[in-house]
Amino acid sequence: MELREPDCVRRSQLTRRGFLSGLAASAAVAILAACGGSKATDTPKAATGATAAPAGTTAPAAGAATAPVSSAAAAATKPAGSAAAPAVAATSAPLADAGSITMLSTQFSPIDQAEKFRKTILGNFKGKVDFLPQDYGPYNDRVRAEEQAGKLTVSILGGLHGDFAPFASDGLLEDLTPLAAKLSDRGFPKAFLDLAKYGTEKTYYIPWMQATYIMAANKKALQYLPQGANVQALTYAQLKDWGAAMQKASGQRRIGFPAGPTGLIHRFFQGYLYPSYTGTTAVGFKTPEAVQMWTDFKQIWQYTNPGSTNYANASEPMLSEEIWVGWDHIAGLLNVLQMRPNDFVAFPAPSGPKGLGYMPVLAGFAIPKGAPNRAGAELLIDYLTQPAQQIATAKEEGFFPVTNATVPADLSGGVKLEADAIKAQSSAPNGVTTLLPVGLGAKNGDYSKAYTDSFTRIIVKGEDIQTVLNDEGKIIQGIFNDTKAPCWAPDPASTGACQLK
Fold this sequence. Notes:
This protein has 501 residues and is an alpha/beta fold. Helix content is 40%, strand content 10%. The chain has a 5-stranded mixed β-sheet. The protein has a 4-stranded mixed β-sheet with strand order 6-7-5-8, with helices on one face. Strands 9-11 form a two-stranded parallel sheet.
């Protein structure tokens, strides 16, 4: 039987209405909302030839109003009744040699990101880590094949919340409750650890990092904003008018999306457009509101650079100034914001008739049941949740800490820009928190393909909107029926397989 999410919708609503304020909003909403999984990796392909963040740059300063990663944020996100975490993690005792460890991960699959993880973030770890990033399909297949054969080689799994849900449901993961207790000085918010239990008494994963998707713009584009528009609170109608004004002034289409074969535009539809227009991510897939959404997006697309269908990320075309305004994962924007922080602004995605749809991402570590080197895996988790590695992950990979890591005051301009935008987006009063897909298992890729195929057919090929949505809706419903996956937020909770309207 498919494992169902434990009150995800209720908790995300409680978060926004209750204990969030100021700095806490950016961290807690992302934490509580990130109840989903990925088709493969939600780390975009980084810009070719991208340089590492400048020496001395790091994550947001402790206590800074812009930072979703400070010790203040971790304390503020703690729900009433949870144990207080120390404001600053104590210096960790040196770890023993962990031996040889095979780590399978759905994150950091692009070559440059994998190398940063191996050489920089794992650089001081006492042990030999064979880091194997993979798309979700091969990742899922390997975990299950090793379990069925009774010959495990993988000792640690890195992935998103939804990646682990099917494994937890099928009893393939170790209970990490003792490890979570041992790492209590890291200051994981109680809500994080609650999510990791999947409604049980066991802890199936340890939090690793968090991210989301935002927008960025070259400052030269700001003069073309529609009259009365605020870049920090745009609507999709204003984005269209902004694109029209930029094209008229420059003679080029200056908006861009990562719509290439390895881009993450499917998350734009699932977590941004659909929730903003329909208040849902899947249930309203073929409704009249969805037809209006695609109609409006066609208008935006006429001012979008046609090269978007080849973009793996937004950084490269923004650095070359082929585009001036772009949407992407924060890791996909980090390079341009790090290299030219004075030339760009970062801001939330636009709002639609139902509000500001946005999609946070939460990743963690799990250990397969019967792992050949569980002790080494636990040492690796200990190491990667220490402050230095949490901060290095933000600086090098564009994923923000999930601990109370003490961060230096010399915050880099690019990371600060992203931190400000994350805070503004996640604390927006009209926000519609959208979870990554949950419970789809190996069908994750097929689910996302239905959205990208809809985009190709409607926007690129110009097919009839309702016809396309009816066709692709049948595919999505078939996926739900096959996997028995219940709906996830913002869709209403379902009994059994999620049903489209």
